[in-house]
Amino acid sequence: MFRQLLAVALLFGLAACELPKDPENTTQTVQGAVLKVGLLQDPLPQIDLTAVTLIADALNAKVEWHRENTHRMLDALEIGDLHLLAGGIPEDSPLTDHAGATNPIGYVTIGADRPERVLLLRRGENQFLMRANMALRPLTREAKQ
């Protein structure tokens, strides 16, 4: 009984602190405005397009697509000029060393391997990551089947 009360108190305490937070306010910036997405593949695979659309719809945002050199887009993601990177990104990609990753949304076929597929977002923007993962639930359930 004590553990349950402690757990409830902890949840209320976290809620009062408005956790998780976005130190750079990504969720507030995107909400009702524009979701800036860097394309690592063009055309974008259908699963990635669906994922981006789910996130944009959850935030009531319009999608603005960006096509650049991968390194420039990663730099733009790190400083907040882009909000997401999409396009066949395996969860074990070296790019994930420089960015946060969503829950897996499917698989990427690379030769004989099929690692799980993710979208990338700015590190530390935990509220944005939580909202993205909530929006992606229909895809993540399918990815685990």
Describe this structure in words.
By secondary structure, the chain is an alpha/beta fold. It has one domain (23-144): D-Maltodextrin-Binding Protein, domain 2. Helix content is 42%, strand content 19%. It has six helices and six strands; from the N terminus they run ααβαβαββββαα. The chain has helices spanning 2-16, 26-30, 46-58, 70-79, 126-135, 137-144, and strands at residues 34-39, 62-66, 84-90, 100-101, 106-107, 116-121. Helix 3 crosses helix 5.
Chart the SSEs and their pairings.
Layout: H1 2-16, H2 26-30, E1 34-39, H3 46-58, E2 62-66, H4 70-79, E3 84-90, E4 100-101, E5 106-107, E6 116-121, H5 126-135, H6 137-144
Parallel strand pairs: 1-2, 1-3
Antiparallel strand pairs: 3-6, 4-6, 5-6
Number of helices: 6
Order of helices and strands: HHEHEHEEEEHH
CATH homologous superfamily, by name?
A: Periplasmic binding protein-like II
Q: How many structural units, i.e. domains?
A: 1
At CATH's second level, what is the architecture?
3-Layer(aba) Sandwich
Count every beta strand, where a strand is a DSSP E run of 2 or more residues.
6
Give a quick account of the main beta sheet: strands, pairing sense, barrel closure.
6 strands, mixed
User: What is the straight-line distance between the termini?
Assistant: 36 Å
Task: Give the C-level CATH assignment.
Answer: Alpha Beta
- How much helix is in the residues? 40-55%
**% residues in beta strands:** 15-25%
By CATH, the topology is D-Maltodextrin-Binding Protein, domain 2
Spans of at least 5 consecutive residues whose pLDDT stays below 50 are none
Overall shape = globular
What is the averaged pLDDT score? 89
Question: Which structural class do you get from the secondary structure elements?
Answer: alpha/beta
Radius of gyration: 16 Å
